[in-house]
Specification:
Largest sheet: 5 strands, antiparallel
Number of domains: 1
Helix content: under 10%
Shape: globular
Order of helices and strands: EEEEE
Strand content: 35-45%
Radius of gyration: 11 Å
Structural class: mainly beta
Amino acid sequence: MIKTIQHSSRLRNSTNGNPRYRVTFTDGTVLDSQSDASWCYAFGNPGIRDGSTVEITLTRAGKISHMKPAN
């Protein structure tokens, strides 16, 4: 699904020490990243930051498992 990031905030690291984020989208949806998701290391780089339009994939529990810039 394609969404635009309005705001993001850093959460506590996972138990394995990997970064986690809470992302608010322009449509009002608020989602957390899945623990230990590798895309979290790309957050803040061009294409994945506040104001970016991204393509996301969710887990069954509603967490963001994948995020990449929308083309």
